[in-house]
TrEMBL record:
Lineage start: Eukaryota, Viridiplantae, Streptophyta, Embryophyta, Tracheophyta
Protein name per its UniProtKB record: Uncharacterized protein
Organism: Gossypium trilobum
Length: 54
């Protein structure tokens, strides 16, 4: 089954990142939160967890 969830999340993250790059720093926390959520839900393979922020 194909769902649009990943595409929607990717576009949201991309948009938030563009706002940050444009100098509107108030969105940076939301972009980081979205990235942390995205990593915790989609980038785990065989019980290997990845560090979100280095």
């Amino acid at each position: 089954m194909v769902t649009p969830v990943l595409a929607i999340l990717a576009e949201t993250f991309k948009s938030l990142n563009e706002c940050r790059r444009a100098g509107e720093g108030r969105f940076i926390r939301y972009a980081q939160l979205l990235l942390a959520w995205f990593h915790s839900h989609f980038w785990k393979v065989d019980k290997v967890s990845y560090r979100v922020f280095s």
